[in-house]
# Entry
Amino acid sequence: MTDQSDPVPGGTTRPLIRKWRGEVAGPCHRHFLPPGEPPGAWPDRPDLRVEVAVVGAGLSGLTAAYHLRDREVVVLEAGTQPGGVCLADEYAGIPYPAGSAYSYYPWNGAWAAWYRDLGLPVEAAVVEPPASALYYRGQWFPDCYSARGVRQLPFGAAVREGLLRLAEDLAAWEEEWDPLGEDFSHPELDRRSLADYLERERGLPPVATAFFAPYCVSCLGALPHQVSAWAGVSFLMSEFSEASRIMAFPEGNARLVRALTAALPRQPLVGRVVVGLTCTRDRVRLLARAAEGETLLVEAQAVILAGGKFAMHHLLPPESGWGAEDFEHFRYSSYVVAALLGPLNIQAPGYENWMMGEEAFSDFILSPRGSPPQARKAMILYAPQPFPGGRPQLLQQPEAEQATRLLRAVARHFPEAAAGVEEVRLYRFGHAQVVPYPGFLTRLRQEGRPRPVQGRLILAHSDLAGLPCVEAAILEGQKAARRAREVLASGEKG
Ligand SMILES: Cc1cc2nc3c(=O)[nH]c(=O)nc-3n(C[C@H](O)[C@H](O)[C@H](O)COP(=O)(O)OP(=O)(O)OC[C@H]3O[C@@H](n4cnc5c(N)ncnc54)[C@H](O)[C@@H]3O)c2cc1C
# Structure
């Protein structure tokens, strides 16, 4: 993607502030939010008949389509390009992630084979250490999520020892605990918040909770007292792991999207908001609308709903077998990603650089990593919005206001970098990712997640795993493809 968005009207010439990009809320809201447009007339005859229709071209929907590429499949996407929150952009020939950035290097044979089959050069994408660095009170602390890095942190000796013991326990748990597997080990951790676990169970002081705060808001969408200890611990296990490493392509996880779409026999139809769904015993019909108002009626034997449940529940007719109560406990965070562009005089030790005590943004990466101080580069700021309630504020916030807030924050810590910013590009995600608040995973995993198949309708999306990460999206996409095959097979037998 190259940026062609207009500058904000009336803005100053330096830095140039571009209009919001990212999630295009308008078309979806127009159809789904009250009073909402009625879905429009349903044509009598389908424009397209397929075996499987996929709603949503995020990683989960694309993965499902990829695993069904020997069947007749169409993917319908509301946005103007595939990828969902895996968005990329480019500046002066430098690719950078404008959304989801990194994933874990495939640690077992099945994952490695999956990436290899997609032709992704994962070896070349392994991030050179230190993967993470902490910025606190004007100083850098590299490799902050490792036993070695913890020993250097500017906290009292007792805090460092407490963190080291936590790191040891995380390493031991990692041997037996697969957070994305079916087993739900240590369910008691889901009944409390991460802050409660750190402070009451492990006796760590609030500064230790504050140390994890930027990580929590960025990766889990909310603060340590708002996310479940189970989710926090299962994410931190990977960060502290001696065994696992992260990988990142220059344009982030948009590279996965490109590989998946390239492997599909039929390209996703973008700019199509699915606004209506009907299902009978032997088929499903989807009504999609484009921005200009023209409609597309798709008939399928099975439909995979790979959008977030906040959107998909609008589509479900009473005869689908799912009710509003199945999805009411899903909560989502909201997010701004900002690219500050120019000859920025800044260097940072980590791939991911965490800002402790800074409210305006939680972390940043520099693209390209390790480039000389005055070279043109992109400083990508991750700025999760307050949870709950950040989304309405985000949707109303003018670009100049958001850009000014972030530039001021950068100038407080890195004045030389802020002085070099020539252009600011802002990307917003109104429903960025599902938030694993205390009790949510128990509800999904022990008390019964919404049944993933109802007749010919199949659920996908990372929110079904309750954990917002690339691997969850891929696994949910794979499961949805298997379920679609079962639905097709039962139709073929009948
Ligand atoms: C800013 C940000 C940074 C992140 N960074 C990382 C990271 O570094 N590493 C990591 O592991 N995870 C990261 N994540 C999380 C991870 O990328 C996501 O969990 C994953 O990509 C989500 O994929 P998905 O398919 O489940 O959902 P989505 O990406 O939400 O895709 C759903 C798609 O459905 C479409 N859709 C919705 N409704 C309709 C409709 N009615 N009709 C047609 N289409 C519709 C949407 O437009 C969207 O494209 C990040 C998330 C965000 C927001």
